[in-house]
Protein: peptidoglycan glycosyltransferase
Organism: Spirosoma taeanense
Amino acid sequence: MLEKVASGVKRLWRYRLIKAFVALWLILWGLDRAFPINTSVPYSTLVTARDGQILHAFLSRDDKWRLYTELPEITPALRDAILFKEDRYFRYHPGFNPVAMLRAAFRNLLSGRRTSGASTITMQTVRLLEPRERTYSSKLIELFRALQLEWHYSKDEILQLYLNLIPYGGNIEGLKSASLLYFGKPPALLSLAELTTLTVIPNRPSSLRLGQNNLLVAEARNHWLTRFRKAGLFDEAAITDAIQEPLTAYRRNAPQLAPHVSRRLRAAQVDVPIVRSTLNSNVQATAERLVQNYANRLRALNIHNAAVLIVDNRTREVVAYVGSADFSNTFDGGQVDGVRAVRSPGSALKPLLYGLAFDAGVITPRTKLADVPTNFNGYEPDNYDRRFNGSVTAEFALANSLNIPAVALLKEIGTPMMAASLRKAGFATIRKQASDLGLSMILGGCGVTLEEMTQLYTGLANQGSVSPLRFTSSTEPSGNAVQLVSPEAAYLITHTLTQITRPDLPNNFDNSYHLPRIAWKTGTSYGRRDAWSIGYNQRYTVGVWVGNFSGVGVAELSGANTATPLLFQLMNALDYNSPNGWFRPPKNLTIRLVCPETGDVPGEFCKNLVTDYSIMGVSRYRRCQHQKAVFTNAAGTLAYCAHCRPDSGSVRRSYLNLSPEMAAFYQSRHIPYELVPMHNPACERVFGMTGTDSQPPLITSLNDGSDYFISPKQPTDMALSCQTADDVQLIFWYLNDKLYRKARPAETVFFRPRPGMLKISCADDRGRHSDLRVMIRTE
């Protein structure tokens, strides 16, 4: 009977204990849900290179150096030392050590004062997260918070949080901050003596000040090293070396490399304690040094700044980012980020235009373009050297950065198509300016950034595929790549930009520079405010901008002589004599014979044929018509058409078939060539010689659709001029469909305008004509 009673009592107590445990657990669970512990801490931001080297460190939001220590940085030696000193049973207790608490309470009661503490690392972490007055009620809260930490985090995570928060005096918190600022190295590289030093300071951060009380710190360090020796924590030899190691710690400045990109990445990832960039620390340091030295040499020319962006073509990763020559130079705008500053590109966008023209089948490298004075509806561009070259090949026009052929190509391709391609390539300012862009955009009449330009050329180095650049290693390769031009067009651009017989080489480059094998293009903006040089090989793309952030132009500033030397220095430092080979032509790119006079498929009068690249199924197949057959009399003084050609006595001859602008250029430069004889005056059909390829007169003054203002008090004459085919002997000017005057093709005609809409017509003696309309207004 007694056994049954005892068994019942035992079950009753067991039941009550279970109920009490469940009730306690529910209470604690409810408190945990009602009062969650906040472990979010405003850490300092670290920007690292791809290899993990720290490039730049920033203060936290509360102005503390509180660097985030990662778990792999907590070495076994560091862990053993900190646990031995602070909490030997850390791995075993639930957040508090009841034995240590009882022992501390007993000692404190005997002495009547606090002589011993019992705080575990978990409880110390709670105090660092939530500082409170040292009272018994605070102790109870700490116990509860310690339990919460243990519930929600592993032991390693709690130790990591503790090491991130321990104080080292002033505004330095966390072991990694102290390691970097006092020893100049991350925790993983600390010696035993150094890590022991950092374990003893948090208990006395005010008196043990590194750099000020090093002797006192060394005594405390050696005291604990001796205790480590007695406990057998480390090898005897390691302890002996650590005790003998001199303490030379002092306060260092935080790393401040790559300032522009570091600020950019920090702003993009505000709450990320460690931003892992794609920068190569060695390449970044080399680029910063070369840019600063080069800018120092340019100061005598009143040129004060430069920016550089270097991209690995295989991964699209930015390996070097130099926003200005000297970040600390506030006088010259050193804190302006030249990589993202909107500037005029000059001629640096021309390769894309030619690539679009290749893909449209409009041109091939040997296609002849006219580099002659041309009026594009009132826009009359000029070349950089203010010279005209006449008929040139497309590859010559691109390699020599001729302006007029580029504007003519843009007019044929269309500014909307060019602007759309730039928008697809990620040009943000072009997207905003698209509706206002005209033909001048190809000569720099738009806004771009060095980042956008380098991204574009990186696409050319990747067979015409453009995608966003990568600045952080955590960023996945972008899947929204845009095929801006075909691989065939990209190769033709690269092949052309690799030529070294061109004017945008630096002066005397062969005596001063080792020319790397690269494809590159220069650009100089209007007013000589911006100098560009962007080049690439298979491995790297390097973008260089040189100028003044103030926008002040300098007469000596040019892409060739100011930016290209720096490009060559950077390329030689990066990849001189690269073993990676060179770009190979795509399979769809073929070689064909063309006429050297036009670049078209050979016709009847073509001789001395040359080879040219063509894109199969894309490049146009047009017969060359640089000469035309004309029947004349035996003396060659009269030309016959099909309607007036005599049955006998006529001779078939060939004459140059010049466009109106080329004929005008030949005449203005007094270049001799054989003109088509005057048409037989006895012919009854004036349209007999008009063919499908005939060109009407091109009115070069005035401009169609323009408004002209005149003063009624001081009326002035206005000029009429045109360009005609070389078979024209006479032209006729009409004003509002009334004949005004006959003239020779090269003759300028003047008239006195009247207010109102005016129709101007020009007809030649072959019956071809063209019209335009202008509005004459009074001022």
